[in-house]
């Protein structure tokens, strides 16, 4: 029997529609958690908007904004347990903040400070991965270690739709399926890999259906619906703890540039961007909470003010942190320095250059 392309039917999970109205059974979540989800989204967006301004002022380096993807990141990370591990790419500010990384640490990273590129203190979050797709293999390695040590933890790899074209992504899914590892691959399908549209990344109608080829579970969720993402991720983590790896495709949109070095107006139509602005994740969740009488415009304004104050304080701390020294580079390679690293470090002169 021939297996024809795109025979698999994938139904996207959605709880709130674009206007914030319920379209399916309400997930088990209390009002306090609802407020927590929204406040984290506000914090992530506020950080993002400030980081863009700081980069334009030359006060931080290149930055990859996540505006528009708050629901995908916050909803997924909010479902994690403290013992779970996160393997981010360069755009996971929101998810990483929820799982324990400080804003100060992110600012240090964008400033080129070595402290910002290390694993977060008291948070199970690996350093930012720049190599596209490599974090998927790292997550599989971490998941395998957790399984061998009988730990009740799940490894979560965050990747974009463009990253799914990398061999590392497919190798990771294959390995996870064969060894039945506690891992979740969370794909944020934001429709663009820099200037390459999703249609040029894959011929399959969805990314979620790729899971079938590797013998693992796949699901597609509305990535701008924080409640749908949260409930979907809860189930994905439950399956993963049982040794059933999961591929989650969160359909969202990158409202801004790929990075601050990118100009999206050269390859995207304004009409496309405007249509997605109507699906904005914060706008949707805010409308839902107001309709439930647990939020209002005054509270919303105050929350953005609180978030701004937190970002300001975090940046001041980062800005007042001493710059890294050249010889410190060798302290972040291995836990214990090899003979070669010791020799290289000793070759650094007092002015920070090789002798």
Task: Report on the architecture of this protein.
Heterodimer of an alpha and a beta chain. The protein is built from eleven helices and seven strands. With 355 residues, it is an alpha/beta fold. It folds into two domains: 31-323, Thiamin diphosphate (ThDP)-binding fold, Pyr/PP domains (Rossmann fold), CATH 3.40.50; 325-355, no CATH class. It has a five-stranded parallel sheet with strand order 1-2-3-7-6, with helices on both faces. A two-stranded antiparallel ribbon has the order 4-5.
The CATH superfamily name of the largest domain is: Thiamin diphosphate (ThDP)-binding fold, Pyr/PP domains
Rg, Å, rounded: 21 Å
Spans of at least 5 consecutive residues whose pLDDT stays below 50 are: none
Query: Strand fraction band?
Result: 5-15%
Structural class by secondary-structure content: alpha/beta
Task: Based on Cα principal axes, name the global outline.
Answer: globular
Average pLDDT figure: 94
Structure keywords:
5-stranded parallel beta sheet, 2 domains, globular, 9% strand, 355 residues, alpha/beta
């Amino acid at each position: 029997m021939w297996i024809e392309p795109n025979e698999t039917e994938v139904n996207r999970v959605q709880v709130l529609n674009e206007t914030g109205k319920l379209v399916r059974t309400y997930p088990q979540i209390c009002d306090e958690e609802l407020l927590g989800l929204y406040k984290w989204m506000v914090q992530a967006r506020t950080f993002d908007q400030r980081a863009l301004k700081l980069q334009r002022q030359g006060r931080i380096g290149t930055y990859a904004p996540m505006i528009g993807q708050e629901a995908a990141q916050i909803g997924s990370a909010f479902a994690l347990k403290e013992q779970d591990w996160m393997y981010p790419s360069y755009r996971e500010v929101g998810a990483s903040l929820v799982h324990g990384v400080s804003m100060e640490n992110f600012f240090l990273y964008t400033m080129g400070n070595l402290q910002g590129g290390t694993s977060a203190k008291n948070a199970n979050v690996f350093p930012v991965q720049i190599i596209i797709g490599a974090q998927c293999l790292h997550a599989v390695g971490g998941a395998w270690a957790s399984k061998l040590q009988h730990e009740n933890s799940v490894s979560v790899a965050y990747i974009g739709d463009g990253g799914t074209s990398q061999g590392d992504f497919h190798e990771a899914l294959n390995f996870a399926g064969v060894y039945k590892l506690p891992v979740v691959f969370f794909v944020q399908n934001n429709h663009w890999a820099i200037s390459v549209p999703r249609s040029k990344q894959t011929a399959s109608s969805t990314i979620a259906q790729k899971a079938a080829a590797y013998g693992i579970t796949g699901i597609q969720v509305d990535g701008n619906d924080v409640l749908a993402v949260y409930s979907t991720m809860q189930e994905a983590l439950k399956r993963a703890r049982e040794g059933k790896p999961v591929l989650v495709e969160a359909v969202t949109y990158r409202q801004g540039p790929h990075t601050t070095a990118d100009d999206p107006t050269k390859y995207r139509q304004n009409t496309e961007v405007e249509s997605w602005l109507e699906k904005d994740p914060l706008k949707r969740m805010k409308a839902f909470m107001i309709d439930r009488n647990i939020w209002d415009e005054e509270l919303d304004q105050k929350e953005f003010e609180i978030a701004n104050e937190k970002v300001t304080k975090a940046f001041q701390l980062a800005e007042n942190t001493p710059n890294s020294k050249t010889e410190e580079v060798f302290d972040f390679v291995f836990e214990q320095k090899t003979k070669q690293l010791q020799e290289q470090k000793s070759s650094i002169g007092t002015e920070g250059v090789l002798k």
